[in-house]
Amino acid sequence: MTTFWFIVIAFLWTGYFVLEGFDFGVGALLPLLSRSEADRRQVLGTIGPVWDGNEVWVITAIGAMFAAFPAWYSGLLSTFYLPMFLIVVGLIVRGVGLEWRGKVRSGAERALCDAGIVTGSVLTAFLWGAVFGNLLYDTALATVLGGLLSLSVAILHGAVFVTLKTSGPVRARARNAALAAAAVAVPVGIIALPSVPGSAMDVPSWSASPWLWACALLAMAALTAGVALVWRRREGWAFTATASSIGLTTAALFGALWPAPLPGLTLAEAASAPYTLTMLTWIGLIALPGVLAYQAWTYWVFRKRLTADISAH
After folding, report:
1. Cβ neighbours for 45, distance < 8 A, ≥ 6 positions apart
2. Beta bridge partners of 273
3. pTM of the prediction?
4. pLDDT tens for residues 148-192?
5. Hey, which bits of the chain come out as E strands?
6. How far is CA 205 from the centre of its chain?
7. How far apart are alpha carbons 299 and 312 in whole angstroms?
8. CB of 131 within 8 A of CB of 147?
């Protein structure tokens, strides 16, 4: 049960980073992709129907950690109390901006909401990478590189999503933004890649686990392929590639955390009692398929591209 729930939690975090990743990227790019109010509505319309559903993944992931591995949950939040607090603040500010923007009337109020969306998106995307970078390597360099990688990949992922979901000038700007973000994301990813000789984050434990090294290399290959596909205007495949890169990176991340997610704490020591894990398993088997089906249906319903005319209504 311990292994099963670690895999479930890794899956939930993967879903969060893939789905909320493009949300963060779209929010961060809002002022760069917009030249008018119609443009801003078009950009935000790409995530309007799905952003709050995407956040359910992190709530579920943290809730599962609390229930299945309470010592891991408490240790993680206490160790990274300040960045976790700032992440919560960023999510709140961003959420308020997204919710209130359509309800305010003045340009100044909309500008304030836009500032909250951009600030919350950038801050949260950077801090998640910084937290996990520090968790793995516990150095200032790893913290900064993790934050830069997380933010730049989110911006790239979000820009690709906008090219997939829009038409007209916004789509062209998003394509240029994706190529610009790749100029940061790819080099930072290469620098941060574990097990590469001379890498700033070379850790012997990665060399002892070839599949982690393979996941990291495949993640970089997928990221590079996504850039090439954007260049060729194959937005659907490009989004698949950037999503795969994030998924593979998260798989490598949690693989590196096995079997000790915190220093001096193994999963066996952090786990709840077997009865609790059994009850959680039954609850998860009943609830999770329904949640996945509903979210898939939501994306299917809102699958069409947005134009400036449509998003203005």
Report:
1. 306, 310, 311
2. none
3. 0.88
4. 999 999 999 999 999 999 988 999 999 999 999 999 999 998 887
5. none
6. 25
7. 21
8. no
